[in-house]
C-alpha cells in the first residue's frame, strides 16, 4: 500500500466464548491502528483499510491472522530461584523479563511444581480466534 495512515478506534477484543478480553471503551483511550507499516497482519489490514470516521466494523480472524498461533518454543520451564524470593508465583500471574534493547517481555505463569515454574511468553491471546469490534473515532 502506498499511503500510510492511522485509525484511532474504540475496540473490543472478543474471544470464542463471547467474553471480552479487552475494551478500549473501558479505559477511554482508543487504540491506534497503523495501516501500511506492517504492524498489522495482512488479513487484519484488509478489514480496516477502507474504514472512515464514524464507521463501525465487526470481523473475526483466525489465530494466525490475529495474535498468532501459540508457539511451544515460547513456553519455558524455569527454576524458582530465577524469580525474586518474595514474588507470588501461581498460575495466571504475569511476570516481566528483560528483552533486547531494554524492552520488557511479559510472560504468564502456567504452572508451578516444586521448584519448577512454567512460563508462557506467547501473547496471551495467541492461539485464539478473535472477533474485533471497531468504531473509528479519527483518521490520521
Give a description of the structure.
By secondary structure, this protein is mainly beta. It has 2 domains: 5-68 and 125-139, Chitinase A, domain 3 (Roll); 72-120, Thrombin, subunit H, CATH 2.40.10. It has 2 helices and 9 strands; from the N terminus they run E-E-H-E-H-E-E-E-E-E-E. It has helices spanning 24-27, 42-48, and strands spanning 5-14, 20-23, 31-35, 56-61, 75-79, 94-98, 104-113, 116-120, 130-139. Strands 1, 2, 3, 4 and 9 form a 5-stranded antiparallel β-sheet that branches. Strands 5-8-7-6 form a 4-stranded antiparallel β-sheet, with no helix packed on it. The longest helix has 7 residues, at 42-48. The two termini are 16 Å apart.
Task: Briefly characterize the structure.
The protein is mostly beta strands and 140 residues long. Helix content is 8%, strand content 43%. Strand 1 and strand 2 form a beta hairpin.
Write a concise keyword list for the protein shown above.
mainly beta; 43% strand; Chitinase A, domain 3; 2 helices; four-stranded antiparallel β-sheet; Thrombin, subunit H; five-stranded antiparallel β-sheet; 140 residues; 2 domains
Rg over CA atoms, rounded to whole Å, is 18 Å
Give me the strand/helix succession: EEHEHEEEEEE
The number of distinct β-strands equals 9
Mean pLDDT, all residues: 93
Tally of helical segments: 2
SSE inventory with pairings:
Layout: E1 5-14, E2 20-23, H1 24-27, E3 31-35, H2 42-48, E4 56-61, E5 75-79, E6 94-98, E7 104-113, E8 116-120, E9 130-139
Antiparallel strand pairs: 1-2, 1-3, 1-9, 4-9, 5-8, 6-7, 7-8
